[in-house]
């Protein structure tokens, strides 16, 4: 038996290895930069340093990546709204609505690229239509929560509840246009500031 150490095998050459999370992150970056409709599987392969055929070893289709990205954004927002609906008995609608606004800001910051992509879909595919349907369901729950806050006398009643909801979450969604993680504004400060600005302007009195 030889005392010489076994030689290490030569490194294998071939396509780079990527896990699903890395592929998804890079795909979202390209979709946001070029637009989903303007991005091909060839573009994604180039971004990852793969051949056009090799990328199919990582993902089955462009639509699969879009669906995963939109679900990431929608799952977070759905959880925030559903958690507000399941708040402890006695929690006011006003308090639940304010919490949803703050948590929505936090979710947007944590999943900024995915939420940005969500806000840019136009319903040009079955995947996008399904995402828009989920967004409408979230919007309906938010409008109902606003109405409940109006009914309990915490919010002014001279502005339609659905308009209040659109204005509130339009302000939250506008963050995708300028907020950059790692910048001078801390995410927690941002969430609290938006809630303070919105609700101190809407409240009839301090609960």
UniProtKB/TrEMBL annotation:
Listed GO MF terms: DNA-binding transcription factor activity; transcription cis-regulatory region binding
Stored InterPro entries: Homeodomain-like_sf (IPR009057), HTH-type_TetR-like_transc_reg (IPR050109), HTH_TetR (IPR001647), KstR2_TetR_C (IPR041490), Tet_transcr_reg_TetR-rel_C_sf (IPR036271)
Pfam families in the cross-refs: TetR_C_24 (PF17932), TetR_N (PF00440)
Top-level taxonomic group: Bacteria
Keyword list, A-Z: DNA-binding, Transcription, Transcription regulation
Name this protein carries in UniProt: TetR family transcriptional regulator
Natural source organism: Aeromicrobium chenweiae
């Amino acid at each position: 038996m030889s005392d010489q150490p076994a030689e290490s095998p030569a490194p294998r050459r071939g396509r780079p290895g990527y896990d699903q999370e890395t592929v998804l992150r890079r795909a979202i970056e390209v979709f946001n930069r070029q637009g989903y409709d303007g991005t091909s599987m060839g573009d994604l392969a180039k971004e990852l340093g793969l051949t056009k055929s090799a990328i199919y070893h990582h993902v089955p289709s462009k639509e699969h990546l879009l669906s995963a990205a939109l679900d990431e954004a929608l799952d977070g927002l759905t959880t925030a709204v559903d958690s507000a609906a399941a708040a402890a008995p006695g929690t006011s609608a006003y308090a639940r609505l304010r919490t949803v606004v703050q948590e929505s800001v936090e979710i947007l910051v944590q999943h900024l690229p995915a939420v940005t992509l969500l806000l840019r879909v136009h319903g040009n595919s079955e995947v996008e239509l399904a995402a828009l349907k989920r967004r409408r369901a979230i919007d309906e729950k938010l409008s109902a929560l606003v109405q409940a806050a109006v009914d309990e006398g915490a919010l002014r009643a001279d502005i339609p509840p659905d308009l209040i909801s659109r204005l509130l979450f339009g302000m939250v969604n506008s963050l995708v246009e300028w907020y950059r993680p790692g910048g001078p504004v801390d995410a927690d400060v941002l969430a609290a500031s938006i809630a303070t600005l919105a609700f101190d302007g809407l409240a009839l009195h301090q609960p």
